[in-house]
Amino acid sequence: MKVFSRVTSNERLFMKKEAIYPDTGNKSSAPLSPGIKAGGFIFVSGQVPVDPKTGEIVEGGIEQQTLQTIENISEILEAAGSSLDKVVKCTVFLTDISEFSRMNEVYSSFFCNVPPARSTIEVSKLAIDIKVEIEAVALVD
């Protein structure tokens, strides 16, 4: 017995998966895509405070690192046809939760109208010697 399923063209659109790479900076050698566009969303891999022009970790404290990390997220979202205004969920990883309020001050300057849902997690260490990493999920038109 054969079973047939009718899939509409709109459903096919949401079943596609597309890797997103911003035009700026160095490409990671890690086996990951900076962003994946699928199902009307863009899923942004954990971004870190590395300047894409130099490949170097930004100097300064948690404020400067948070700023660069969110700017990196913004570049990926723009490459996918989205923006920070369309972010619906973020996960923030901090190596020192006592820096939460300083990170949050910078973070909240980007997400002031309708802030996305967010989790913040303290971790013992990140992949490189940094203080913050942020993942994001955003809507794509």
Describe the model.
By secondary structure, the chain is α+β, with helices and mostly antiparallel strands. It has 3 helices and 6 strands, in the order αβββαβαββ. It has helices at residues 9-15, 62-79, 100-110; strands at 17-20, 35-38, 41-47, 87-94, 117-122, 132-139. The mean pLDDT is 91.
In short:
The chain is an alpha+beta fold. It is 26% helix and 26% strand.
Q: Would you spell out the secondary-structure blueprint of this structure?
A:
Layout: H1 9-15, E1 17-20, E2 35-38, E3 41-47, H2 62-79, E4 87-94, H3 100-110, E5 117-122, E6 132-139
Parallel strand pairs: 4-5
Antiparallel strand pairs: 1-2, 2-3, 3-6, 4-6
Helix pairs in contact: 2-3
Give the overall shape: globular
Per DSSP, the total helix count is 3
Class by helix and strand content? alpha+beta
pLDDT < 50 runs, ≥5 residues: none
Strand line-up in the sheet with most strands: 1-2-3-6-4-5
Largest sheet: 6 strands, mixed
Helix content: 25-40%
Please, what is the CATH homologous superfamily? RutC-like
Average of pLDDT: 91
